Amino acid sequence: MREIEQRALQAYREHFLEEPLLIASAPGRVNLIGEHTDYNGGFVLPCALDKRVAVAIGLSDHTLFYSADFEETRPLCEKRGGSWADYPSGVVWAMQEQCLALQPVQAAFAGEVPLGSGLSSSAAIEAATAIALDGLFHLEMRKKGLAVLCQHAENAFVGVNSGIMDQYASLLCQAGTALLLDCRSLEATQIPLNLAEAGLALLICDTRVSRELGATGYNERRLACERAAYTLGLKELRDAHLEDLDKHCGEEQKRARHVITENARVLQAVQALHRQDFGAFGRLLSASHRSLREDFEVSTPELDAFVEIALHSSALGARLTGAGFGGCALALVRSEDTGVLLRKVQQSFEARGFTRPECFSFQPASGAEIVK
Ligand code: ADP
Ligand code: MG
């Protein structure tokens, strides 16, 4: 059992004074490439972090959730209450909506995915809850079905209008792979990403710049993409080609160029990974960043600084990840170089007067699983 799963087990024992019937966990995720392509019907390529949310679960008279991180117990919410319990409650709600036979449970959660950093701790807690309930009550749902159910919980119960990538990644990713997801058909394909074997690692830098200001920018970008598709008589920019850009001008042209080239980069990145050509893969990451900075205009000085420092310190590639306007960046680095790069980033951020970033390196990890 992983340490985080042991923490959930311990929390369950201390809190409910008995042994759980089952322990499960699910990871946060990072999107390697394919940014702002999801709502344009395009491609994304996430992989699972080695940071997870774990849950220990058993039967009870009334459903109760305990969070070891928030150090509080909460009952099942009938509707959105604005607390962490909305996430597991939303999953129970979505299962009941599908007339799945559940009984009251008690569950203890412990997590290590940073909250609100864009690494999808929300999908991790949903996926952990869903796979635990599925296992406990022998629902025999497929992981794809659970992912759609978790997304429905987040959209309709929690009230966050997220796409399907986070839940797909948290449930379906495997260790040493990335997941190519076609956001239109929801077809998901495992892509080999055995970085450890190649002496490589991924490094995440959470700039801890709040993404709240990004809400307006995000909506503006979505609208610009819709307009750009409309100009071409298309429903989604997924079907647009570089030649079509002549029909656009100004902002619309820049936004469309990002989406068109980014979709192409995802597919090229997949080819590079199949060839184990990590140099080419890294160059595509960096090209994605340039496009997000110059055409989609969603980068920040902190994200640009990280990418610049990483590329000057022998990283194979680096880019902002997530919607932008703050949040996280990632770099593909040689494992032995991570320590030096981490120090350089901390020093340089301090010298530039930026907020102290949170950085960590990891290997692509496994998706949601029942561990006991
Ligand atoms: P992100 O998904 O980017 O981390 P969100 O705002 O979508 O940010 O989700 C974060 C929320 O998910 C937290 O505020 C909390 O309500 C819930 N959550 C995540 N991890 C845990 C945890 N370990 N224990 C309890 N709640 C959690
Ligand atoms: Mg989230």
Would you give an account of this structure?
The protein has 372 residues and is α+β, with helices and mostly antiparallel strands. Helices cover 41% and strands 22% of the residues. It contains 10 helices and 12 strands. Strands 1, 2, 3, 4, 5, 6, 7 and 12 form an 8-stranded mixed sheet that branches. Helix 2 packs across helix 3, helix 2 crosses helix 4 and helix 3 packs across helix 4. The chain is globular, with a radius of gyration of 21 Å. It starts with a helix and ends with a strand. The protein binds adenosine-5'-diphosphate and magnesium ion.
Structure at a glance:
The protein is of the alpha+beta class. It has ten helices and twelve strands.
Question: Tags for this entry?
Answer:
binds magnesium ion; alpha+beta; binds adenosine-5'-diphosphate; globular; 372 residues; eight-stranded mixed beta sheet
Strand content: 15-25%
Largest sheet: 8 strands, mixed
| Tally of contiguous helical segments | 10
The level of helicity is: 40-55%
How does the overall form come out from the CA principal axes?
A: globular
Give the termini separation: 8 Å
**Total strand segments:** 12
Secondary structural class: alpha+beta
Which ligands are bound? adenosine-5'-diphosphate, magnesium ion
- The H/E string reads HEEEEHEHHHEEEHHHHEEHEE
